[in-house]
Amino acid sequence: MKAEFEAVGSPEPKNWDDIYDALKKLKAKYPDSTPLGGRGKELGQNFRQFFEQSFTSGKSGQPAFNDQVVAFDPDKKEWYYGPTAPGFKDSIAFLAKLYKEKLLDNEYLTMDMNALQAKIKDKKVFMIDDYVGGLSGIGDLNPGGVLVPLPMPTFGGNAQILGYTGSHVGDRGTVLSGSLKGDKLDRVLQMLNYMYSDEFYDHLYWNPEVTGEKDGKKYYTNEGMYSGDAAVKDKYLPWSIMGGFQVDNETTTKAGTPYADYKLNVLTAEANKDKYLQQPILPFDTEQSKRLSEIQTTLTDYWNQTIDQFIVGKKSMDDWDGFISDLNGKGAEEEVAIYNEVYKKFFQ
Amino acid sequence: MASTTDVELTLASGGRGRGRSAAWKKIKRSRFLYLLLLAPVLWYVVFAYLPMVGVLIAFQDFSLYKGVFHSDWTGFDHFKRALTDAGFWAVFRNTIILGTVTFVFGFPAPILLALLFNELRDGLFKKAVQTISYLPYFVSVVAIVNIAMIMLSPSTGVVNGFLKLIGLHEIYFIIEPGWFRPLYVLINLWVGTGWTSIIYLAAMSSIDTQLYDAAKVDGASRLRQIRHVTLPGIAPTITILLLISLPSIVATNFEMVLLLQQPITYSTSDVVGTYIYRHGILNSEFDYTTAATVIFSIISLAIIFASNRIARKFGETSLW
């Protein structure tokens, strides 16, 4: 809430120290409040997820929310386990501190949008953690207040690499039936080659209403794409599905085919290459994927259960080393080893 | 000359023929009843027996692309993994504890409620209270859990409001592992007690009123009437419902657990159903979770057999 932050002399906190000071001042002004809130019931354990994104990454290049917590260090050129980064422990300790001092909503884990809106109206919450789209819903019901989006400060980590969703070329492939032989196989491969060609792509997408041409180069007009997925789909591509790529916060919708899916990942990566570093996409084999999947489910259960215990004070931060050791025992070290093994094999 | 055996065979064969014909006539006569039976039989075949073929994937490195009949066989690998996985045994333990606690409190509650209702005079109050008691049964689990969460909110819930009023600290019930089981049992009682009590009330209504009159003449108090007339009168109903409820000690209400649990309460709230949901559905480990389900089903069956044997030993009836 902009006005409240201005009133306590912190119109635009830049880092977590600023935010902490502003929350303290708001708490002093409104003792019954817990100034920082969130809707954990709908978004999961959202506060820590934002921090997790700074230290972790998914195997398909997406920031982790609850699962893959392995991250790539571009300087050392190796993968490491996210929670072992000192900054990550600091971020959880910081949330625990906010919770203990009642600066973080004591029921943030089970809040939904309605309950959060009620708390904002009652001046119990002044700052929330949500995605940009979520703000409009809250704003509509609070005509008197103005919510100002602030970039989420980090505690270090490789946020630059990992703070962006979908900026990588996906590691998808095409499955061919083992019974395809001789002429049939050749024809299928021919078709696949065609589907992955610029000729096919142009043939599919080239339409003056959704694409334009400038200096001999084709580009995609946002207006055409935004005019409605259904319109584009029904009019030009009745058989296809839709995809989208993102530059900053603007999403451009495109019709999808296996190639289009691949292509829009390339476009996304291209569009963001100066803003976000890329992390390698690792081609795990079936055995490795299966083993990673087994490890990750077990780790995720333990991870989700324990991190919240640290934040709400059911576990002391002094037990952090034990937590890391437990994670290793449940397969974290093995997970990192598989990542590094595949990275070394294909990238070094 | 035909031997004795031949004669016997001929007679027997003729007898079977007549038997078959009689049976067919019987079926023909009751054809509409058999037609009615067809629907549930089909339901069981399609939804309960045919899917059992899927148990095969517990022994496979199951691939969605290859299907049940073409995936590679792995023997007992998934069973070994489940049996040595501490996580599986933890959720197994939670399931049994939750089921047993719910059974222990949930079984006598409707009997008590029905006894209380039975003592009320017929009238508007009795009708209103009865209706209110079984109303939650018709509300969806999602709504029930949401109402519970609102009531238990540490900041705005009535329960914590009361705690604060009497000078106690508020409790964030939903994230307390120690509170999960009591909450689950209480919500189950809230939802099911009123509804199940109807069965006992029906049983009570069939008790001969002359027995109560005779007890009154003998100077029996209300409590004695309950003890010596009402309870013996509904004893057969109690026994049957007890036997029917026995399998519930290995079952939990998946939707309710899923809605009520938070990752922070997994130590008490994670049950076989939610574990399989996360591993199997969310993480696509269909083969492993099928193996885990088979293990759980076998152990559950053993528990039900044991319970039935105990019931047969100490009671007069049993499930089979």
From TrEMBL, chain B:
Q: Name one GO biological process term.
A: transmembrane transport
Q: Which Pfam families match?
A: BPD_transp_1
GO cellular component terms given for this protein: plasma membrane
In terms of one coarse class, where is the protein primarily found?
membrane
Q: What SUPFAM superfamilies does the annotation carry?
A: MetI-like
**Taxonomy, superkingdom:** Bacteria
Protein topology in the membrane:
Multi-pass membrane protein
State the compartments where it is located.
Cell membrane
Query: ABC transmembrane type-1 domain location, by residue?
Result: 92-307
Question: Where, by residue number, does the polypeptide cross the bilayer?
Answer: 32-59, 96-117, 137-163, 183-203, 229-250, 288-306
Keywords, A to Z, come to: Cell membrane, Membrane, Transmembrane, Transmembrane helix, Transport
Task: Please name the InterPro entries in this protein's record.
Answer: MetI-like, MetI-like_sf, UgpAE/MalFG_permease
Q: Which family does it belong to?
A: Belongs to the binding-protein-dependent transport system permease family.
- What is the name attached to this protein's record? ABC transporter permease subunit
Species per Swiss-Prot/TrEMBL record = Paenibacillus sacheonensis
Q: Which lineage do the record's taxonomy fields give for this organism?
A: Bacteria, Bacillati, Bacillota, Bacilli, Bacillales
